[in-house]
Amino acid sequence: MTDEEWLRHAIRLAQRAESQGEVPVGAVLVHDNSLIAEGWNQPIQTNDPTAHAEIVALRKAGQTLNNYRLIDTTLYVTLEPCVMCMGAIAHARVKRLVFGAYDPKRGAVCHALQLSDAPFLNHSVEWTGGILEVDCAELLSDFFKARRNQAKGR
């Protein structure tokens, strides 16, 4: 499958998160073009501030592979990862990261922080951003617009 196809899978997971009242972010971890693990945002549902889509997928992958080192894997995620997720991605030694929407305020790949190749981390992560960017960004903006309207009583 192509990067776009894997990211479309992550979008479907983001939609699952949204249907559960979570911020719509989805993640898929792949090795040799085979699905290893997937995740979607679940912090509200699980009362766990670390249950971001990326972390959920990394945890499942570690259990599936019986190893926290996820060497030669690619992580597909609908939104540029935050600082917590980038730390976990580097620690897990994910080889490649592909994401959809950029996050100029909190993104830790190439915006608020640039952790993909930070010299103080134990691993550099190759990355590509902006794949299906419009689809991923619209999913998020529509979600937050609906939340604002709900708060205003519309």
From TrEMBL:
Could you tell me what the cofactor note in this record states?
Answer: Binds 1 zinc ion per subunit.
Q: Which residues does the entry assign to the active site, renumbered to this chain?
A: E54 (proton donor)
Q: Which Pfam families match?
A: dCMP_cyt_deam_1
Q: Where is the CMP/dCMP-type deaminase domain?
A: 1-110
Instruction: Give the protein's cofactors.
Output: Zn(2+)
Chain sites annotated for binding Zn(2+): H52, C82, C85
Q: Which domain of life is it from?
A: Bacteria
The chemistry this enzyme catalyses reads: adenosine(34) in tRNA + H2O + H(+) = inosine(34) in tRNA + NH4(+)
Family statement = Belongs to the cytidine and deoxycytidylate deaminase family. ADAT2 subfamily.
HAMAP family given in the database record:
tRNA_aden_deaminase
Q: What does the subunit section of this Swiss-Prot or TrEMBL entry state?
A: Homodimer.
Q: What is the protein's name according to its record?
A: tRNA-specific adenosine deaminase
- Where does this protein come from, organism-wise? Methylomonas denitrificans
Q: What is the organism lineage in this UniProt record?
A: Bacteria, Pseudomonadati, Pseudomonadota, Gammaproteobacteria, Methylococcales
Which gene is this protein's source?
tadA
